[in-house]
Write a structure and sequence with these properties.
29% helix; 299 residues; three-stranded antiparallel sheet
Amino acid sequence: MKKNVDRIIGKYSSGKKGPLLFVTGGIHGNEPSGVNALRTVFEELNKTKPEIEGTIIGVAGNQKALNQNKRYIDEDLNRTWTEENIEDGGRDTHESREMFEIIDVLNEYSEGDFTKRYFLDCHTTSSASLPYVSVQEVNDNDEWAHKFPTYIIRGFSDIITGDIDHYLSRTGMTGFVFEAGQHTDKTSQENHEGVIWLALKEACNLDLDKISTYPECVNRFAKKNAPEQKTFEIIHRHGLEDSDIFEMEPGYENFQKIEKGELLAKQNGNEVKSEWDAHIFMPLYQSQGNDGFFVVKEV
């Protein structure tokens, strides 16, 4: 990640009326994959100059944390987007200031100027993971998510409040969070690039054959790196307090099967065992975070 990340990573339009595709990367500063993928996508768009309907804009999330390769500076930027926080003008934190800067950018692209407004929020995970979509079941988000060939998680935003996709959905936009894989895995950027290209195809009617890097730019995600589409729902969150000493048992990956009675972690010296025959999701293998793990089941 090069220093001094600009808020606007790129913007592209060929002047035709159509939707807005609002893509965010680096909401967590230790997750640069989405920012790097957006740079690659905009380089290709500006080189190839394909025709699209509407506009795509790429926006960097936590600029200061990205430059320091830290998840956040004062508080998690992906927990600040509550209605109360926004109405009250935010807390006196670095992340609140960055949040309002991102809102100001979005407000420049008002609903009346576009046929529809879509969002895509790019993330990665601390543990090894298959790529997946996290979708809130409001608006037509779920229908939109099922156009993409990967695992789909429902319900994360119902448990975790204050995330950016919750806010964007409240404004009437259609979209989802895309988790591309482990933070430093090279396939994560490939997956982010692939999902952005597919979103441009689905939202802005981009003819992918006009892209010089096609089909590799999409196939790495849609065929090589991503699994068959399955849908999961969250049935349990193991939350943590800031004072907790939490250590996940080594080797867990997203969607790995777990059994009732299986040792999952140690918390403040006590064993944490599974109460379910299900799948583990987002096991915590980094120092910052208040979610130890989630348990999900296939629907």
